[in-house]
Design goal:
- The complex is a heterodimer of chains A (about 400) and B (about 290).
- Chain A has 2 domains: about 220 residues, Rossmann fold (3-Layer(aba) Sandwich); about 160 residues, 3-Layer(aba) Sandwich (Rossmann fold).
- Chain A has about 400 residues and is α/β, with parallel strands linked by helices.
- Chain A is built from 14 helices and 14 strands.
- Chain A starts with a helix and ends with a helix.
- In chain A, helix 5 packs parallel to helix 6 and helix 8 packs parallel to helix 10.
- In chain A, the strands form 3 sheets. In chain A, strands 7-6-8-9-10-13-14 form a 7-stranded mixed β-sheet, with helices on both faces. Chain A has a 5-stranded parallel β-sheet with strand order 2-1-3-4-5, sandwiched between helices. Chain A has a two-stranded antiparallel ribbon with strand order 11-12.
- The radius of gyration of chain A is 22 Å and the shape is globular.
- Chain B has about 290 residues and is mainly α.
- Chain B has a domain of about 200 residues.
- Chain B contains 11 helices and 2 strands; from the N terminus they run ααααββααααααα.
- The N and C termini of chain B lie far apart (about 50 Å).
- The chains are: A alpha/beta (about 400), B mainly alpha (about 290).
- At the A-B interface, helix 2, strand 7, helix 7, helix 8 and helix 10 of A face helix 1, helix 4, helix 5, helix 9 and helix 10 of B.
Chain lengths: ~400, ~290
C-alpha cells in the first residue's frame, strides 16, 4: 500500500516536467453566435469559456492546459457539421461540445461517431439524439428533453383541480410539437376530465401573435400550456397582456421553454405576467436556501461577463466542460476512446448539483428548476419563487 | 360556438397584423416602385430603428420618459443612414444588372446585422408601452388595446400621406416620372440624383419608424431583420410590386387570411398565406394592383 503510494508519487514527479510542456487539450465548440439563436448561444459559450479559464488557472486537466475553439454554427445543422469536421481534421480537437438546437446536435453526433470523438451536447432536447437507433459510444447529452417539458407542465396543470378546459400554444417545429405531444398524452392520463379546447402553432420567430391569441381566447380555456420561448415569449406577452389574455386565464399558464430564466424576466421587466409557472436550467436568483456553490458560481459569472445579472444559460456550457474534465480525469487519459468509456456512469459536480451520465442512455437525467414567477421588490423583474428541481425520474416512468 | 363578436375580434386581430406589415412594407414598396431597387436591407433598417429607439429610451429615461421622441430620433438616424447608403453605395448600381443590387443590399444585411450585434449584444431587449397607450377600449364586446388602435391609425395615416404626396404634389409628379423614364427626366433638367436620395431616405425613415413603433409590442432580438423582410416581401408581391395602394391592400388581405386561416385550420397557420401568394402569382403574376412588366 505504502509502496504503491510511494511509486505513484515518483511517477507523478517524473511525469510533471513532461506534463508542463504537454500538448493542450483542444475542445471544439460550435454554437450559434449570430442570428436569433445567439440569445442562448452567446451566454452558453461564456459559461464554457469561464470553465476553461478556471480549469487552466488551477493547473489544467492532468497537467494539460485546455483550449476552447469556439465557432459560429449560425444555428444551422449543415454549418455545424462543416465546423465539426474542420475542427477535427484541421484543428485536431480532442473533444467536441456545443451546438444549441435539436437540428445541429444529431448532425454533429454522426461526425463524432465517424471520427470517434467524444461529443457532449449541452442543450439539444430532441429524444432522437440518444434514441437507440442513433446512440453510439461517443455521444453524451447534458440537457433535459421534450418529454420532461411536456410531462412536468402536465403535472402542474393537473394539480389545478378546477381547471377543465386547457389550450396549448407552441412554436411549429419538432421541439414545440414533441413537447406539446408529451403534454397532451400525460394530461389525458392524469386528468381524463380535462378537455383540450384549442391548439395554436405560431411559427418560430412569429412577429405578430395577435390573431393566434384572439383565436385561443375565443375557445375560453381555463389554463394554457405554452412552449413559446426566448424573444418570441417576450413578443407574445407584450401582445397578449393588453388583450386580456392572462387575466382571462387567471395567469394560469405553464411555459416549458425556460422563460423562468433571468434572461426572459430581464427583457420583460415590469411587463412580465406575474403568477405564471415556468422552468429554468439555472434560476440564477435564488432567494431562499441557495446552495453556497451556486452563489459562488453566479458571483464569478457576473465578474467574468461583467454583467449586472447573470444568464441562466451559461450553466449549460459551464457544466459541459466540467463533464469532459471529470471524464478525462477518471480515464486518466486524453484519448476520446478512453474518455468515452470513463463517462459511462460518471458522476460530476456542478453549481446546481451533481449529475450522472446513465451508462445505458448516455444522458444525465438532468431536470430543470420549476416554479411560479413572482414579483419581488428587491429586483426590477420577475423571479422564480422557491425553485424546485424536477428531474426526469418521476415523470418518465 | 363562434358568435359574431368573436369573429369581430378575429377581424381586428387581422387588422392589427395587417397595419404592422404595411408600416414596414410601405417603404419597401416605395423604393421598388420608383427606383426598381429590391432593398433586402430594408429589414435591417427596421431592426436598427428598433435598437435605436431602445437606446434613446435608455438615454432619455432619467430626464423624461418620451417614447415618441425616441421613435422620432430612431427614424431620423435611420433616414440619414439610408441617405448615406444611397449616395455612397447604391448610386453606383443603377443601370447595372439587378443581381449587383441584390448582392449589395444583401451584403448590407450581413454588415448591419453584425454591427447591431457588436453594439447591443445578443440579449433580447424590450421597451414598455407609452403610458398614454397602455390601456384598452371595448368595441362590441371586443377588447382592442389602445396601442393596436394607434398602429392601425398610423398605418392609414401613412397610406393617405404617401398617396397625397405621390399623386398630388409636384415632388410626387417627379417621382412618378422617374419611375417611368429616369434618363428622360434627367434630360429635362430635373435633379434625379437628389430625388433618388430623397426617396431612399423617405423609405429608410419609414423602416426606422416602423422598427421603433413595434418595440412596445415585440422583443428586439438579433434576426428580427431577416424575419420581417420575408413577410414584407410577401405583402408587396401580393399587392403588386411598385404599387403603393397595392401594398396597402396586400397587407389587409394578408392579415385577414392569416387571422381567419388560424381559426379554420389552426394546425396550418402559415399554409393559408403562402397558398394565397401562390394563387395570386399564378392568376396575376404582377400582383393585385401591379402592372404587367413590359
Amino acid at each position: 500500500m505504502i509502496a504503491q503510494r510511494f511509486l505513484s508519487v515518483i511517477v507523478a514527479a517524473g511525469l510533471l516536467p513532461v506534463a508542463a510542456q504537454a500538448e493542450n487539450i483542444k475542445i471544439g465548440f460550435p454554437m450559434p453566435l449570430s442570428g436569433p439563436a445567439s440569445v442562448y448561444g452567446v451566454p452558453i459559450t461564456k459559461g464554457a469559456e469561464m470553465a476553461v479559464q478556471e480549469i487552466n488557472a488551477s493547473g489544467g486537466i492532468l497537467g494539460h492546459k485546455v483550449e476552447l475553439l469556439t465557432r459560429d454554427s449560425k444555428a444551422s445543422a449543415d454549418e455545424a457539421v462543416r465546423l465539426a469536421r474542420e475542427l477535427i481534421i484541421k484543428n485536431g480537437v480532442d473533444f467536441l461540445s456545443g451546438t444549441l438546437t435539436s437540428a445541429e446536435a444529431p448532425a454533429v453526433s454522426t461526425i463524432a461517431k465517424e471520427n470517434k470523438i467524444v461529443f457532449v451536447a449541452p442543450t439539444a432536447k430532441t429524444i432522437q439524439l440518444t434514441a437507440p437507433a442513433n446512440l453510439h459510444p461517443y455521444i453524451f447529452r447534458l440537457a433535459s428533453n421534450t418529454d420532461i417539458d411536456g410531462r412536468t407542465g402536465a403535472s402542474i396543470i393537473a394539480g389545478w383541480k378546477d381547471v377543465k378546459r386547457v389550450a396549448t400554444i407552441a412554436p411549429d417545429y419538432a421541439y414545440g410539437r414533441d413537447a406539446v405531444g408529451a403534454f397532451v398524452e400525460f394530461i389525458r392520463k392524469a386528468r381524463p376530465d380535462i378537455e383540450i379546447v384549442d391548439q395554436q402553432w405560431p411559427k418560430l420567430g412569429q412577429a405578430d401573435f395577435t390573431p393566434f391569441i384572439t383565436a385561443q381566447m375565443g375557445k375560453k380555456p381555463d389554463a394554457v400550456f405554452c412552449d413559446v420561448f426566448g424573444g418570441d415569449f417576450v413578443t407574445l406577452v407584450k401582445q397578449a397582456a393588453p388583450l386580456g389574455y392572462f387575466k382571462a386565464i387567471n395567469n394560469r399558464l405553464v411555459d416549458g421553454g425556460e422563460v423562468g430564466t433571468t434572461d426572459a424576466a430581464l427583457a420583460l421587466g415590469k411587463d412580465y405576467p406575474y403568477g405564471i409557472w415556468s422552468d429554468a436550467y439555472d434560476p440564477v436568483i435564488w432567494p431562499e436556501n441557495e446552495p453556497a456553490a451556486h452563489k459562488a458560481y453566479i458571483d464569478r459569472l457576473k465578474a467574468f461577463t461583467k454583467q449586472e445579472y447573470a444568464s441562466g444559460w451559461a450553466i449549460m456550457g459551464y457544466a459541459s466542460i466540467l463533464a469532459l474534465k471529470a471524464g478525462i480525469e477518471k480515464a486518466k487519459s486524453t484519448k476520446s476512446a478512453d474518455v468515452a468509456k470513463a463517462m459511462l456512469g460518471l458522476s460530476f459536480d456542478t453549481p446546481i448539483g451533481p449529475l450522472t451520465f446513465d451508462a445505458k442512455t448516455h444522458e444525465t437525467a438532468m431536470g430543470e428548476f420549476w416554479g411560479q414567477m413572482v414579483k419581488d421588490d428587491r429586483y426590477p423583474f420577475a423571479i422564480m419563487k422557491n425553485p424546485k428541481y424536477l428531474s426526469q425520474g418521476p415523470y418518465t416512468q | 360556438m363562434t358568435d359574431l363578436s368573436f369573429l369581430f375580434t378575429q377581424f381586428l386581430g387581422g387588422l392589427t397584423t395587417a397595419m404592422f406589415l404595411f408600416l414596414i412594407a410601405s417603404g419597401l414598396s416605395l423604393v421598388f416602385g420608383v427606383m426598381r431597387v429590391l432593398n433586402f436591407a430594408h429589414g435591417s433598417f427596421y431592426m436598427l430603428g428598433a435598437y435605436l429607439a431602445w437606446q434613446a429610451v435608455q438615454w432619455l429615461t432619467p430626464l423624461l420618459e418620451s417614447f415618441w421622441l425616441a421613435a422620432l430620433f430612431a427614424a431620423l438616424v435611420v433616414a440619414v443612414l439610408g441617405g448615406l447608403v444611397e449616395r455612397l453605395l447604391l448610386r453606383h448600381m443603377y443601370g447595372k444588372e439587378e443581381l449587383y443590387q441584390l448582392l449589395l443590399t444583401y451584403a448590407l444585411v450581413l454588415i448591419l446585422g453584425d454591427a447591431a450585434k457588436a453594439i447591443w449584444g445578443t440579449q433580447q431587449l424590450s421597451v414598455s408601452r407609452p403610458p398614454i397607450l397602455d390601456g384598452a377600449i371595448e368595441m362590441f364586446g371586443t377588447v382592442l388595446p389602445l396601442y393596436n388602435l394607434f398602429i392601425m391609425l398610423a398605418g392609414v395615416a401613412i397610406a393617405v400621406i404617401g398617396w397625397l404626396i405621390l399623386a398630388r404634389s409636384s415632388a410626387g409628379r417627379l417621382v412618378r416620372a422617374a419611375a417611368l423614364d429616369r434618363e428622360m427626366l434627367g434630360a429635362l433638367g430635373a435633379n434625379v440624383g437628389a430625388l433618388y436620395t430623397g426617396m431612399f431616405m423617405a423609405s429608410s425613415f419609414l423602416a426606422g419608424l416602423s422598427g421603433a413603433l413595434v418595440t412596445p409590442i415585440q422583443s428586439i432580438v438579433p434576426g428580427m431583420d431577416v424575419e420581417v423582410i420575408v413577410e414584407a416581401f410577401i405583402v408587396v408581391v401580393i399587392g403588386g410590386l411598385g404599387s403603393f395602394w397595392g401594398t396597402f391592400w396586400g397587407s389587409l388581405i394578408y392579415g385577414q387570411v392569416l387571422s381567419f386561416g388560424i381559426l379554420i385550420m389552426p394546425s396550418f397557420s402559415l399554409f393559408s398565406v403562402f397558398a394565397l401568394m401562390a394563387v395570386i402569382l399564378i392568376v396575376r403574376p404582377w400582383g393585385l394592383f401591379g402592372k404587367p412588366m413590359r
